[in-house]
Amino acid sequence: DFKLSEKALSISPSVTLEITAKAKEMKQRGIEVISFGAGEPDFDTPKNIQEAGIKTIKEGNTRYTASAGVLELREAICQKLKKDNNIEYTLQNIIVSNGAKHSIFNALTAILNQGDEVIIPVPYWVSYPEMVKLAGGKPIFLETKEEEGFKYNVEELKKSITDKTKAIIINSPSNPTGAVYDREELEQIAKIAIDNNIFIISDEIYEKLIYDGKKHISIASLNKEIKDLTIVINGMSKAYAMTGWRIGFAAAHAEIIKAMTNIQSHTTSNPCTISQYASLEGLKGEQKDIEYMRNKFEERRNYMVDRINAINGLTCRKPSGAFYVMANIVQIKGKEIKGKKINSSLDFANLLLNDINVAVVPGIAFGADDYIRLSYATSMENIMEGLNRIEALLK
Ligand code: PLP
């Protein structure tokens, strides 16, 4: 008994960890594992960004920066938010952090009191509930339906609001569902937030990975009232293939940003100086590599969705963004495959890993046991081979 804090003990270990750790170990033993588990682009960081990082080191620009991030980067973020999202912010509305995950954690810490409720859509990104709990809040799970595009049902959303509700999380495009909200849907959610004086945490990290010519809309761009209630979260990890550089940012009302900056100044100081200058090049430099990667993801998505829907027992919607497919396994649950009874997404994920060496994430990790998540942030060859194996298994 180590007398750990209740807070620490309230946090669950990642369900996905077990499977990914096992897949890694199998790979090390020389087994040809195909992994659909990736949560990051398989591409290298674009050359111009790499070089900006190297140049920053060589120029000796390796000291602390302002806690909220260097001026030039915050200016570039303001310009980005104006140009891409049509939202007007000034420097006092911006904080740069160690990844979007850190931005979300700072935001929650800045707004939550003990017992405050935060509405989270199910299926959810694994870290939202745990971060809400760490910040003293209470996650309130709101189921979304596949046939409603895995998006909030506005009537249900209204019903789930209590006098304890402090914030609603929107993640568009979504991990794991790929759902993208349109303007009308965001307007309805904005109205609920304004009527009840509730914050919106708008996680837009997959903004640039959006398909079929769809356009990303930030809820903060709709009007002044919702802008003041919204904390926009974005970052470099996904679109710029910069997961390891750890740069994310938040934009919000100056009072919120001030609180987040205070928190950050006493916990992590500033985000990595070198990564900040590399990110500056990312935002201001040539964007053609970004569009190249987006195109590749769209090609892979199209292929994966067609293949999955042709496999016996599996179905899926075509996700509009991010780089994941949620495959519905309802027809498989309850069946026996290769002598093993499949009662859950974890059973099915284990079968795929043990029998055909294919790693997927069981939907239970996102609160959705009728699904498995397949990432297409891997090569077309891997996607083909992995889906061939699944198809053969389920024939
Ligand atoms: N938000 C969502 C929905 C994500 O999927 C991720 C990464 O997996 C993040 C935020 C955090 O990204 P990072 O901390 O690398 O910026």
Question: What's a concise summary of this model?
Answer:
With 395 residues, the chain is α/β, with parallel strands linked by helices.
Write down the CATH topology of the largest domain: Aspartate Aminotransferase, domain 2
Largest sheet properties: 7 strands, mixed
Q: Classify the secondary structure makeup into a structural class.
A: alpha/beta
Order of helices and strands: HHEHHEHEHEHEHEHEEHHHEEEEHEEEH
Produce the secondary structure layout.
Elements: H1 6-9, H2 15-28, E1 34-35, H3 47-58, H4 71-85, E2 94-97, H5 100-111, E3 117-122, H6 127-134, E4 138-143, H7 154-159, E5 165-171, H8 183-196, E6 199-203, H9 224-229, E7 230-235, E8 248-251, H10 254-267, H11 273-284, H12 288-309, E9 315-316, E10 324-328, E11 336-337, E12 340-341, H13 345-356, E13 358-359, E14 361-362, E15 371-375, H14 380-394
Parallel strand pairs: 1-13, 3-4, 3-5, 5-6, 6-7
Antiparallel strand pairs: 2-8, 7-8, 9-10, 10-15, 11-12, 14-15
Pyridoxal-5'-phosphate binds next to helix 5.
Organism: Caloranaerobacter azorensis DSM 13643
GO molecular function: pyridoxal phosphate binding; transaminase activity
Cofactor: pyridoxal 5'-phosphate
